[in-house]
Specification:
single chain; alpha/beta; Rossmann fold; 2 domains; six-stranded parallel beta sheet; three-stranded parallel beta sheet
């Protein structure tokens, strides 16, 4: 068993991006973070993204709105960012308040600035294997982990646990592409899949993005499989000062001895998500230069 060190790989990628940003003359890439309300997790996530952007040399703007803002008001604010040539990437932090349609909000972000990869246009381009598309950051991060760990996915059977638009569906589409990493056979499993273990035991690469702590146990993983754990779940732990600890969707202690490669939680996929957001922002900046839309 060998750990895939997401922190180390993400740091390497951020160093590469930092050198690229240093080479840009005059204007630097700029990403706008839109946060609605004071959800503690959202506050923490956005702060981490701001800090990482600063480390790379990417400028950031933080727009904070009260939870009482209407959907129409938020759409107007996003329209202003869409029209601002000084902003190259826009990220709307989820979750949004219950009175908002998240899909509608994400689709309102210009596809050219959709560094989160949630806009329907980018999802469609991804399905068409268009390399100009912005891929969702977590799926793109998973592929970067596999690439930099020199995992050959060609012909491998990948089983994806989860079918969300943010992780499950796009990571499967990326691994189906005729690129490297890619060219895999992909099976999607979800809450409606009967006899789940029958499918997961066939996986050469198992991607767990089901949102249930410690769900995947040793009975679901074959010897020598590669396991990518996307889950980040808080469970009570009285031995910790915080009163909780972070675990993935995989029961690491049970599953790790069976695997050839596995991502830990934390320190696996998580750092890659933020790093890929920075890469998408730099890509958006470069595309704006090509289109003559930068200041």
């Amino acid at each position: 068993m060998e750990l895939i060190d997401g922190n180390a790989i993400a740091n390497d990628l951020l160093k590469e991006l930092s050198k690229k940003v240093e080479s840009f003359e005059n204007q630097k890439p700029c990403v706008a973070f839109v946060r609605v309300g004071q959800d503690p997790a959202s506050v923490s996530y956005v702060r981490k993204k701001e800090n990482t952007a600063a480390k790379v040399g990417i400028e950031s703007r933080l727009l904070i709105f009260a939870e009482t803002i209407t959907e129409d008001q938020l759409l107007r604010e996003i329209s202003l960012l869409n029209e601002d040539y000084g902003v190259h990437g826009i990220l709307v932090q989820a979750p949004l308040p219950p009175h908002m349609d998240e899909r509608k909000i994400f689709n309102h972000v210009s596809p050219l600035k959709d560094v989160d990869g949630f806009n329907a246009t980018n999802l469609g381009l991804l399905c068409q294997e268009n390399q100009d598309a912005f891929a969702s950051c977590t799926p793109a991060g998973i592929l970067e982990l596999l690439k930099r760990t020199e995992v050959d996915t060609t012909g491998k059977h990948v089983v994806v646990l989860g079918r969300s638009l943010i992780v499950g569906k796009p990571v499967g589409m990326l691994l189906l592409q005729k690129n490297r990493p890619g060219n895999a056979t992909v099976t999607y499993c979800h809450s409606g899949t009967p006899d789940l273990a029958n499918h997961t035991l066939q996986a050469d690469i198992l991607i767990a993005a089901i949102g249930k702590p410690l769900f995947v146990d040793r009975s679901m993983v074959k010897q020598g499989a590669i396991v990518i754990d996307v889950g980040i779940n808080r469970i009570p732990d009285n031995t910790r000062k915080s009163g909780f600890r972070l675990v993935g969707d995989v029961n690491f202690e049970e599953v790790a001895p069976l695997t050839s490669l596995i991502t830990p939680v934390p320190g696996g996929v998580g750092p890659m998500t933020v790093a890929m957001l920075m890469r998408n922002t730099v890509k958006a900046y470069e595309k704006s230069l090509q289109a003559g839309m930068a200041l």
